[in-house]
Structure formats: C-alpha cells, structure tokens
Amino acid sequence: MTTLAERIHTQLGDALLEYEEARDMPVIICKKEVIFPFLKFMRDDPSFSCNLLTDITAVDYLKHPLKKRQRFEVVYLLHSLEHGHRFRVKVPLGVADLTIDSAVPLWKTANWLEREVWDMFGIRFNQHPNLKRILNHIEFVGYPLRKDYPVDRRQVLTINDSLMDEMEQRLIEKGLK
After folding, report:
1. How far apart are CA 25 and CA 87, in angstroms?
2. Cα separation, 113 vs 108, whole angstroms
3. Cα-flanking dihedrals φ and ψ of residue 82, to 5°?
4. For a disulfide at 103, which of 78, 110, 155, 176, Cβ 3.0-4.6 Å?
5. Could you tell me the residue ranges of all domains in the chain?
6. Does the model's pTM come out above 0.85?
7. How far apart are CA 40 and CA 35, in angstroms?
8. pLDDT at 57 over 70
9. Contact 58, 120 (CB under 8 A)
10. What confidence score (pLDDT) does residue 154 get?
11. For the chain, what is the HEC assignment?
C-alpha cells in the first residue's frame, strides 16, 4: 500500500520540487507548469478528495535570507472534507514570468481568491474569467503586498469605482433584472 506522499511523488515526478511533512499539514512545492493537472488530481483522486479550496495567496520573499528559489510563491490550501486531511501546495514564480494557470475551472471559490492575489501581488492567472481589481480602486497603481511597494505612496483616484458591472450580469442571469 502506498502512502499519500508516495502517490504525490509518483504524480508529480520531476515537477515535484519538495515535499515536507510540516507540523500542521503536508507541504508540496511543485513547478508551475503542472499546477492545474496536479490540483485536479488532488481534487478528483479518491485517496485525496480535496473538494474544498480554502485559500489562495502569495508570498513575496524579496531579500529573505533563507529563500533560495524564486521571489514569489503562490500558495493553495486544500482540504478534504471526506478524509479530514489538508495540504499546502506552493508554486515558486520568478519576477520575469508572474503567470500561473487559473484554478477557477476546478473550484468556483478560486475566482475571487485569484483576483485578490492579482490585485495585491500582480500575479496573473491564465484563463481567469474576470481578472480585475477587487480590493483596490481601479485607478490604483502598483501591488501593495509586494515588499518593495512604498508604504507612504499617495495616489489621487478620481473615477467612481463600483462592482455593479459584475452585479448587473448576475442579476440578469438570475432573472432579477
């Protein structure tokens, strides 16, 4: 009988950069080229059944003394309600290519989570259905959770910003407008 760790090693092969049994949950670090099929595997495989995407975030390791890979990591928190296990999946990204495939086709919750990561870190999600600002004003310039963002920067914002363009479509789809 193979362990979950062995199944992950088999599934990822050379795309597995690191696997660690951390204190709170296993941590899987993989190459970005395989993230979509790997997340699909984690969701669909009966041994894992990670049917809940709890969060997507990013980390900026600018000037971190111990970080040896890339500046950024996209982090996915997966949970199996059936088995009760959780996994942290990390994907390193270099500054030269801050793109990664969207998880929206796998979990609807990825939609706004990916928008938050893009809005705050500038990481683009390929094939995202509506990648636009969600926390910051549409005129806001920059990505405030990057370590090199000037915290004292001031910006004059003049346009009325609203999410009504999204709400209008949802109301029409539900027959409420």
Report:
1. 6
2. 10
3. -70, -50
4. 110
5. 4-173
6. yes
7. 8
8. yes
9. yes
10. 85
11. CCCHHHHHHHHHHHHEEEEEECCCCEEEEECHHHHHHHHHHHHHCCCCCCCEEEEEEEEECCCCCCCCCCCEEEEEEEECCCCCCEEEEEEEECCCCCEEECCCCCCCCHHHHHHHHHHHHCCEEECCCCCCCCCCCCCCCCCCCCCCCCCCCCCCCCCCCCCHHHHHHHHHHCCCC
Residue 66, token pair as written in the block: 């111990």
Which pair of tokens denotes residue 5?
A: 């760790």
* 4-173 belongs to CATH 2.170.130.30: no
pLDDT given for residue 156 in this prediction: 79
Nearest to 58 by CA among 82, 34, 32: 32
One-letter amino acid of 126? N
Please report, for residues 116, 123, 130, the alpha-carbon distance to residue 163 in angstroms, rounded to integers and kept in the order given.
14, 21, 12
Tens-place pLDDT, residues 125-139: 999 998 988 888 888
